[in-house]
Amino acid sequence: MSTIKIRRPQLTEAFGIGAIFDAPGMSLMISESSWDSSKLMEVEEPRLVRRLKVDRLLTPVPADDKFVTSASVPARRFPAWAYCPSCNSLAKLADFGPIQSVKKCPGRNCAGQQLLPSRIVVACPAGHIDDFPWFRWAHTDRPCGTPEGNGKLTLVSTNSSTSFADMRVECQCGASRDLGDVLMPAALTSVGMNGCQGGTPWRVPGEKEECGQTVKVLQRGATNVYFPIRESAVSIPPYSGHVHMVANALWGMFKDLDPADDLFRLNVAHLAPKHNLTPAELTEALQKKRAEVSGQEADIDIKIDEFAALSRPPQSGTFRDQFLAEKIDAVPEQHAHWLKSVTLVKRLRMVTAQVGFSRIEYPLDDNLIRELKLEADGKKWLPANEVRGEGIFLEFKSQHMNDWIAKNKLPLEARLKHVLHKAKDSRIIQRTELPASPQVIVLHTLSHMLINELAMESGYSASSIRERLYCLKGAEEGQLRLGILIYTSSSDSEGSLGGLVRQGSPERLAGLLDKALEAAKWCSNDPLCSETSPEQGQGTEGMNLAACHCCGLLPETSCELFNSLLDRTLLTGGAGIEGFIS
After folding, report:
1. What would the pLDDT profile of 123-146 be if each residue is shown by its tens digit?
2. Of 21, 173, 298, 500, which one is least surrounded by beta carbons within 10 A?
3. What's the pLDDT score for residue 498?
4. Pairing mode, if any, of strands 379-396 and 56-60?
5. What sign for the dihedral angle of Cα 137, 125, 219, 22?
6. Is residue 22 part of a domain?
7. pLDDT digits (tens, 9 = 90+) for 494-511
8. Which of 227, 252, 270 lies at the terminal end of a domain, its last residue?
9. 3-class DSSP state for residue 510?
10. 377-393 pLDDT, tens per residue?
11. Nearest 5 degrees, angle CA 301-CA 379-CA 1?
12. Can you say how many angstroms the Cα of residue 549 is from the centroid of all Cα atoms in its chain?
């Protein structure tokens, strides 16, 4: 197989384990097995490792700054059926040649015609996926009439269009059937396929699991063939500090040494100056690493820990640290009633790990998530990726939020009753661990309006900017810790241009907020958008009100809540509600 390049971030997103990857001349599925540990490197993020209960987070060693290759990422051919547009032959790849390398039809009159992978596959909500039953489809009404009972198939098109209705599967025995109804819900029951066969091609080819769930025919490139399930964490002190990074790098040398031994002290004294550290600093970091590895360090709630670091960033830092932030207490006067403080995150590192995937729809049940089970050198690991960039953190005044909700209690209940009821039953919202509440809708809507404005002001595209919402219980009863982190998420130079932090500076932030709120007052789909029925809602599972593609929605990669729980009215006022910021 020729060398194929994949961007590293895609290995935890669209092309993670279990996904179909369209490579030049072939269709591949990223495999869960056969990873070579010598071609993997560690992604350090101790808090995420503890949360996911694994030993390590790993990523393939890149061939250059952006790409990894098929030499370090195991993949298998899938679907296993292909079609030659020259001779119309439809067969398994093994019938054309060596399954891992064949790309062209060996037919005498095909002149090396490129083979095309099957356009359709079958999958079930439990994550299984299989080849479409081409042979059974052609012989829906009668068995194959050839002596061997396995006649050769062809895929014939009328050439009037590329739709399935104009395509027909034919067998040399004379049996045939068109594909006009292949995407219908009951399509597979007509060929006797009443339940899932349990195919797991991302593990071992040909391996099957017991399933029996209803299967569905999907186009190979459809977005619902694969939904990656991910967890992420911002690298924060002390784990983002230079001394901690050095301790991680040197841990293999020190893990079996007793800190009281002379050899331990000699190695520390020798190595510390080489990394611009004192022996005391390196010794302390190694002791923390030992406690962390032995499990003596208590589990930390990832977002609580992040909120503390963002709202009270360390005053000192070096250019080697992965987290550098500056808190600004002087907020714009016209927004001081709701905005407590602003933190300019000048350097930020976000680590994302893939924990599993699902198919057909986002899983409403944890049992439908295909959890990844990977081991290297006897240790559990998960694929991960890190991105570096910058960001702006806005901390809200909890008391103002409480007062606003109390003042607008009745109209808020009337407007949000149905939306919040749907959200509390939605597995999409439950997986984010954010509460379904008016506070989250306010945070989320303002975040989207700011990202849309930043995309025009900062030089970053909207798809390069992401959000992270914080709605956490406070130390005092009834008080919440509320905030928004808006950050860049690029693995290359686009993540550190400085344009985002500059927009959070005191002289620019007031104008940015004013423009975002002005944009929230009007949508080109108004009055249809702003007058959306509270009972019906719009968008994902009907969990949006005054928010649509023309005003409040973002690219899927940017949003933490799948573009749900949005309502411009809560910001600007209307329907008997006083706007949160007005």
Report:
1. 999 899 999 999 999 998 888 888
2. 298
3. 65
4. parallel
5. negative
6. no
7. 445 668 889 988 889 999
8. 227
9. helix
10. 788 999 999 888 899 99
11. 110
12. 21
Q: Is the distance from CB of 567 to CB of 546 less than 8 angstroms?
A: yes
DSSP 198-246: -B-TTTSTT-B----PPPEEEETT-GGG-EEEEEEEE--TTTTSHHHHH
Stated pTM of the model: 0.81
Residues 488, 390: contact at Cβ < 8 Å? yes
Q: Can you give the length of the chain in residues?
A: 582
Residue 491's pLDDT band (cuts 50, 70, 90): low
Rounded-to-integer distance, Cα 202 and Cα 405, Å: 49
> In sequence order, what DSSP letters do the residues of 446-493 get, joined into one string?
HHHHHHHHHHHHSS--GGGEEEEEEEEE-SSTT-EEEEEEEEE-BSSG
Is 119 a domain residue? yes
Phi, psi torsion values for 126, nearest 5 degrees: -85, 5
Of 227, 245, 268, which residue is a domain's last? 227
Q: Are 390 and 348 in contact (CB under 8 A)?
A: yes
Q: Is residue 322 part of a domain?
A: no
pLDDT digits (tens, 9 = 90+) for 42-57: 888 888 988 898 988 9
Burial class of 107 by CB neighbour count within 10 A (0 to 12, 13 to 18, 19+): middle
**Token digits of residue 297:** 């360090």
Q: Give residue 508's domain range.
A: 397-572
Token digits of residue 363: 């899983």
pLDDT band for position 267 (cuts 50, 70, 90): confident
**Who's near 426: CB < 8 A, 6+ residues apart?**
364, 436, 541, 543, 564
Query: What total of structural domains would you count in the chain?
Result: 2
Residues 324 and 345 sit within 8 Å (Cβ to Cβ): yes
| CA 12 from centroid of its chain's CA atoms | 7
Residue 222 burial by Cβ neighbours in a 10 Å radius (0-12, 13-18, 19+): middle
